[in-house]
Design brief:
about 350 residues; mainly beta; Methylamine Dehydrogenase, Chain H; 2 domains; four-stranded antiparallel beta sheet; 1 helix
């Protein structure tokens, strides 16, 4: 075997060894990147206890307590740092559809299709209860942030507005009622001060109402004939965000209903929306689990959280609420869980 043959074989082996080394380095680099990605994947605090879908979640002012309402007919109070429910409130006899702390945090209001209840969140004691709602005729309810008003969307498109601060003798009677839409109302939202109420229906229409006069303020174009499934006012009250079965989030001017932007990125229908208290971020939750955080300054997607993903298709994100400092986001899902996320910087 001559020197030439020896040199060729040596070079061949060196090249082969170099290829193997390169492959090993690529694998190691990929593994390191994957490990970093796993390490950086947001891990929420998870709260378990509900036995059916969690329909609503709400932070108390100051962020030291968390409340959730469920289709299991209960309301649960949680310590946001984790652990089992502090209190389980069981006086409702049907699905709990709305949960709202008053601005001073001294009262927790909850509502179903048949009744509204006021609780002392510190002790879990029932303070007041009002009956007189329309039961199965009601498709959705919401409570104003000041705790004074309750709005009901009806399956026939009607809207009812109750004054909780004027209700007497445990009965809700003589609400203001008007025809809001021609089809089932799927979502309602008050603005921060309770002076505006937005309603969305299954034929894609949105209307913003003056709660003092019950007259329409504006009628945004909606979602092109597809269900409107989520609504939220911006903290300043000058913008309304809507989500629908068309998988996009739309932003509207409250005063004239003109479109202000469209946020695209979800793959499933939008079921929940929430602004941070400073209005700089908008969170959207979809049917298949993911939660997206959007910049309201330029409309860019800031991050995507796993939300309530899992199983074959994931679980709907029914409700979202930011803490008062905007650093934590609570989510409620069809998977019977409440999750608490740190909002990325």
């Amino acid at each position: 075997m001559g020197p030439a043959n020896f040199d060729v074989r040596v070079l061949f082996r060196m090249a082969r060894d170099m290829n193997r080394l390169t492959l090993v380095l690529v694998i190691l680099a990929t593994s390191a990147t994957s490990a970093t990605a796993v390490a950086q994947k947001p891990k929420p605090i998870e709260f378990n206890g509900h036995t059916n879908s969690v329909s609503q979640v709400a932070f108390a002012p100051g962020g030291k307590q968390l409340a959730s309402g469920s289709w299991d007919e209960t309301v649960r109070l949680w310590d946001p740092t984790g652990g089992p429910a502090r209190q389980t409130l069981t006086d409702h006899t049907d699905w709990v559809l709305a949960v709202q702390f008053t601005a001073d945090g001294k009262m927790l209001l909850t509502a179903s299709q048949r009744s509204v209840k006021a609780w002392d969140p510190a002790s879990g004691q029932l303070v007041k209860s009002w009956d007189g709602l329309l039961g199965q005729r009601i498709s959705m309810v919401t409570i104003s942030r000041d705790g004074r008003q309750l709005a009901c969307g009806l399956r026939d498109g009607g809207v009812q507005l109750h004054r909780l601060d004027k209700a007497k003798d445990g009965k809700l009677t003589s609400p203001r009622q008007w025809v809001g839409h021609k089809s089932w109302i799927d979502t309602l939202a008050f603005d921060q001060g309770g002076g505006r109420l937005a309603t969305g229906c299954r034929t894609g229409e949105i209307t913003i109402w003056d709660t003092g006069t019950t007259k329409a303020v504006s009628k945004p174009a909606g979602h092109g004939g597809q269900h409107v499934s989520a609504l939220v006012f911006s903290p300043k009250g000058n913008r309304l965000a809507s989500g629908g079965f068309d998988t996009v989030v739309r932003i509207w001017s409250v005063d004239d209903g003109k479109p202000q932007g469209v946020l695209k990125g979800h793959r499933g229908l939008i079921q929940s929306l929430c602004y941070t208290p400073d209005g700089l971020l908008l969170a959207s939750g979809e049917r298949h689990g993911p939660i997206k955080l959007w910049s309201t300054v330029d409309g860019s997607l800031k991050t995507t959280l796993p939300g309530h993903s899992g199983g074959q298709l994931g679980f709907s994100v029914h409700s979202l609420d930011f803490s008062s400092d905007g650093k934590r986001l609570a989510s409620a899902g069809r998977d019977k869980k409440v999750r608490l996320w740190q909002v990325p910087e």
